[in-house]
Amino acid sequence: MLRYFQLTSFALAAGFAIAPADAQMPAAWPSRTITIVLPLAAGSGMDTIVRLYADKLSPALGKPVVIENKLGARQMIAAGAVAKAEPDGHTLVVLTSSSLAVGPTLFKDMRTNPAKEFVPISLYVKSPFILVVTPSLPIKTVAEFIEHAKKVKATPLSYTSLGPGSPQHLSMELIKSQFEVEMSHVPYTNTPQSVLDVASGHVSGGFAEAGASLSLIRDGKLRALAVSSAAELPVLPGVKPFAEAGNLAGFEAVSWHVLLAHAATPKPIVDRLHDEMKKIMADKEMRQKVAEMGLLPVDTPSVEGIRAYIATEQAKWGSLVRKLGLEGSQ
Q1: Euclidean distance between CA atoms 151 and 171, whole angstroms
Q2: For residue range 158-172, what is the model confidence (pLDDT) as tens digits?
Q3: Which residue ranges form the domains of the chain, and what is each CATH number?
Q4: Alpha carbon of 22 to those of 19, 25, 31, 267, 268: distances in Å?
């Protein structure tokens, strides 16, 4: 098991506020439109998935479910809007591992403390990355990738990411640490350009999002070596998980999405929303649509299980952020 994967303390899980156990379900809930606030733009993968399950959540609850996109401030504008809303189950938010797992260590000021201000409802999808290299390199496997990186110390392989502390950056730094290799970090401000620069050979490789890289992989303009998830991606059959391809047991480096509510939301409402989301994400058609996007649908754990998962992810990535000297750097 990777040393970064060892949980330093499950006490973090207790940080997520728990609604009073004796809270009662309001008789008229829901009494109006339910709003799900997103920190990413309309048309993004997150937005697409949320609109898919919102269409199913609406008839299940008997009220409209609408999406409101609030971008900026490392997802904290969206989080802050919901933290200030009435804790009545009518305003929800979706956050990712960037704010829930990495942010508490990486960011100097998060404005909002998700662990104290929200209760998790559903962990419903994981977003893996694909380790890709430019086809001009004589690299076809993870073993060759590591071997090549060790041979070219004078001119290290370069890799892309969306900046220090981004999931792609931390994933590659984890590999560098585990295999004791040097690679040069080339940060970008947007995913499409970073992937195109790998395809053109300006950068050696990197971890890329499936949505931005699949077409280039299929056209032979990028070479896929492994996926960062614990399981294969249905859209990339035959491309093994890094844990297997790199003989690195326990390796998983993925982004993930969680639907949350205000921490003071009555427990019966949280439980109802959790149960409805569990049914929706278990639907075969829904899972197929998510898989076709290059994502992995998740059979959500219980509310307590989500808290525990977030705690392990906070420990794993927080440890690496501190090792890299990035604590409070953003």
Answers
A1: 21
A2: 999 999 999 999 999
A3: 3-127+255-323 (3.40.190.150), 129-245 (3.40.190.10)
A4: 9, 10, 21, 8, 9
